[in-house]
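Input structure tokens:
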């Protein structure tokens, strides 16, 4: 990557920043040499009901994985995100809400108002029978009630599990059932990009596949008619009239679960990633403050959806724990047109803006005219997350949006990590476009040889990325399946947390994430297990076999490429392609919609019947010359057919 230009820390960034290079070096060293002392100090950023005396208890040795931080401490996450700010910041805006339509007036919700809403909401949940430890599934649009619902759960010790509003009824039902939720929270409709998703109707379909005792609480967002089933379905606004205003936060152990969030892996159904209370909040609040260089009074905007971990950690928990003003946006970057992001930044004088490379590439593709004429001078820090950013998009973001004056923090992390692990700090890190740069405090990245698992000691290295020790924000288990947790992350490379990503470390020790090395693909920053799409495809009666791989896509980063073998007697057609595409959308949701479907009379298999995905990946990437050894295939000739058909498809 010698063609990549170095962007050194500018004086203005250094002046403003909470952490400079010397501090970073000193703090990083201490965090590694003396984690107990380091975290004993930094846990003080939270209000504890009972201050922890035991800081870290971790075992990374397979199979007895155990991760505990601050284990004898007690706190309440909602009290840390709301109550403790009331004295000094009661009147300050906690949440700015910008609706899908620019014609709807924005809302400014103060900490005082947030407190009132969350207490009411918590009392409604209690009234519906929810108590400490119960699971609540949240299936909502990007509306303030989504944050109220999360914080209300945290207030009473219930464990929330948010399901992205773009997921289908089937996917929603699977998640409700997996965590055995007591209540589902939804809305009548979800407006997005000028269209509406019928959330309550989706919820009704999902609930048909769930136990009779699951209750449903509905937020009125749009006001359209929906079906309400007596005894099962309740309106939030009606319930709120029947409950009191006050709700004391419950004391929770630091290791009590805060939420479950389902994410895709390389095999089987999505895993319920479990995050707990104390370590997660220390981690998200500290990274939010230092990575975005957040100062009191700043207006901060993370453009993610709360259905993903980015929304959990960096719209709700991190910012609110810091008493920040966090902007929540219901819409999409291209509605009404491709200037919406820039209009929102101008309107609310946003200081920090955080989005995904796919959005940057899409907007860059629409042309600079959508940016021009907007006053973006409030911006101080830009961020990216979700996938590697190509230097071209980085430079566009830097020059066109940041006017060459704001640092870009390219934050590498995962649902599993709770918050940022490898990231620049605005006043400390010289930037290289496309590199997530250096580890955050307490993070010990290691590069391993993929095959042997040997640690690569040389600074310059290429291999798989693992982490040698725990950090407070790490996931603790897979809900209901601790064995799967150990097997997924700690078995292949023993003694380490394995990220599933490949990476390169350059001569300066900077990390460059190269993408997943497992059967997970990253589509527009959304994580998709190829196995999930395959099982959706083969559940269609006309499909006998399917293999799904990622391929490079200009805007989405990766697209979903499906090889499909039909049942005997079925004929390939454009119509069938659409039918299969719709089928996958129904099984999983629009985000899993196949980009390309290639009908393949045969798939490349070993003699023992295993599909050679490596070959399929290479064909999808147009890399016909590097298919590798095909002589071990049961029928090597299928490869030529696949290539011919692939060329026709594109
Ligand atoms: C995967 C995790 C982290 C919140 C959003 C996605 C990829 C994430 C970066 C980055 C290169 C990145 C990795 C990772 N990824 N951030 N800055 N540079 N790749 O969370 O759905 O759990 O996906 O996203 O491949 O493993 P997720």
């Amino acid at each position: 990557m010698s063609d990549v230009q170095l962007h050194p820390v500018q004086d203005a960034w250094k002046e403003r920043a909470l952490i400079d290079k010397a501090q970073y070096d000193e703090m990083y060293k201490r965090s590694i040499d003396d984690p107990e002392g380091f975290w004993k100090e930094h846990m003080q950023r939270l209000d504890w009901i009972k201050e922890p005396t035991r800081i870290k208890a971790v075992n990374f040795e397979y199979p007895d994985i155990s991760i505990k931080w601050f284990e004898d401490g007690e706190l309440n996450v909602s009290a840390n995100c709301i109550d403790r700010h009331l004295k000094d910041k009661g009147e300050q805006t906690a949440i700015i809400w910008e609706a899908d339509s620019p014609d709807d007036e924005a809302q400014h919700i103060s900490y005082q108002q947030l407190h009132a809403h969350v207490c009411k909401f918590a009392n409604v949940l209690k009234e519906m029978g929810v108590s400490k430890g119960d699971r609540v599934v949240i299936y909502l649009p990007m509306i303030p009630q989504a944050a109220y619902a999360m914080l209300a759960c945290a207030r009473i010790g219930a464990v929330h599990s948010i399901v992205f509003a773009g997921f289908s009824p089937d996917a929603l039902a699977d998640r409700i059932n997996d965590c055995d939720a007591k209540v589902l929270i939804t809305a009548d409709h979800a407006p997005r990009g000028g269209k509406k998703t019928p959330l309550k109707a989706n919820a009704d379909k999902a609930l048909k596949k769930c136990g009779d005792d699951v209750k449903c609480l509905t937020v009125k967002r749009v006001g359209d008619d929906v079906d309400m089933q007596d005894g099962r379905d309740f309106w939030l606004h009606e319930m709120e009239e029947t409950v009191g205003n006050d709700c004391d936060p419950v004391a929770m152990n630091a290791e009590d679960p805060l939420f479950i969030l389902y994410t895709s892996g390389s095999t089987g159904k999505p895993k319920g990633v479990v995050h707990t209370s104390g370590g997660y909040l220390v981690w998200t609040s500290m990274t939010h403050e230092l990575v975005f260089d957040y100062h009191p009074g700043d207006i901060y905007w993370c453009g993610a959806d709360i259905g993903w971990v980015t929304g959990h950690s960096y719209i709700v928990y991190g910012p609110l724990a810091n008493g920040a003003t966090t902007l929540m946006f219901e819409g999409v970057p291209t509605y009404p047109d491709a200037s919406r992001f820039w209009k929102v930044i101008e309107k609310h004088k946003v200081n920090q803006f955080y989005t995904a490379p796919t959005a940057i590439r899409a907007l860059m593709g629409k042309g600079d005219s959508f940016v021009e004429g907007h006053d973006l001078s409030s911006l101080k820090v830009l961020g990216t997350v979700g996938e590697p950013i190509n230097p071209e998009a980085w430079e566009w973001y830097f020059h066109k949006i940041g006017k060459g004056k704001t640092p870009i923090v390219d934050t590498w992390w995962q649902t599993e990590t709770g918050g940022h692990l490898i990231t620049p700090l605005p006043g400390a890190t010289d930037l290289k476009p496309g590199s997530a740069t250096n580890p955050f405090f307490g993070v010990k990245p290691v590069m391993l040889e993929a095959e042997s698992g040997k640690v690569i000691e040389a600074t310059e290295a290429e291999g798989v990325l693992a982490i040698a020790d725990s950090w407070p924000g790490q996931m603790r288990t897979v809900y209901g399946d601790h064995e799967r947790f150990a097997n997924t992350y700690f078995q292949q490379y023993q003694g380490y947390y394995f990220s599933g990503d490949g990476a390169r470390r350059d001569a300066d020790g900077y990390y460059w994430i190269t993408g997943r090395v497992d059967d997970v693909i990253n589509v527009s920053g959304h994580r998709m297990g190829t196995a999930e799409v395959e099982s959706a495809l083969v559940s269609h009666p006309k499909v006998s076999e399917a293999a799904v791989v990622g391929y490079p896509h200009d805007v989405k980063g990766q697209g979903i490429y499906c090889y499909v073998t039909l049942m005997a007697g079925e004929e390939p057609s454009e119509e069938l392609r659409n039918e299969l595409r719709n089928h996958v959308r129904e099984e999983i949701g629009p985000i899993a919609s196949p980009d390309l479907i290639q009908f393949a009379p045969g798939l490349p298999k070993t003699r023992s019947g295993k599909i050679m995905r490596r070959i399929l990946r290479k064909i999808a990437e147009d890399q016909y010359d590097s298919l590798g050894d095909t002589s071990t295939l049961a029928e090597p000739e299928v490869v030529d057919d696949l290539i011919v058909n692939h060329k026709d498809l594109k």
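The mean pLDDT is 96. The longest helix spans residues 111-127.
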